[in-house]
Amino acid sequence: MLEHIRPQRRTVIVGAGVGALAAAVAACSSKDETATAESSSSPAASSSAAAAPGAALAKTADVPVGSGVIVDDVVITQATAGDFKGFSTVCPHAGCNVNKITDGKIICPCHDSEFNLDGSVAKGPAKKPLETKAVTVQGESIVAG
């Protein structure tokens, strides 16, 4: 008797489409939450405080030549002696925070983008450089602004 009760073909197709859409939305939202959780656990994201203009970020002696440091939301590099540059920690590819500087490269953990010490892209998928942040040297300190 149940053999004669079958849903219409249109009902099955529409139901499958709605189910696929719901699964895609759920996958996207859980991926975003994972990326946020990963980026918030990185050392670069450990502080949500933005560097106020004039605020001391680091000592010049703390930024190695040919490398850099990450302080709050600023990457400070010193490619050559005395040439300090500042960049945003936010990767322009997907908005994750870069979290380390290794072998003269600034690394984004989300998709393995790498940036040179001047902020330019060394390896994608990022296509744009890191955003520049103004830093100046005052005495032995590197300050925002």
From TrEMBL:
Gene Ontology MF annotations: 2 iron, 2 sulfur cluster binding; metal ion binding; monooxygenase activity; oxidoreductase activity, acting on paired donors, with incorporation or reduction of molecular oxygen
Superkingdom field: Bacteria
Residue ranges that the Swiss-Prot or TrEMBL entry lists as coiled coil: none
One annotated Gene Ontology cellular component of this protein: membrane
CDD domains: Rieske
Protein purpose: Iron-sulfur subunit of the cytochrome bc1 complex, an essential component of the respiratory electron transport chain required for ATP synthesis. The bc1 complex catalyzes the oxidation of menaquinol and the reduction of cytochrome c in the respiratory chain. The bc1 complex operates through a Q-cycle mechanism that couples electron transfer to generation of the proton gradient that drives ATP synthesis.
Name of this protein: Cytochrome bc1 complex Rieske iron-sulfur subunit
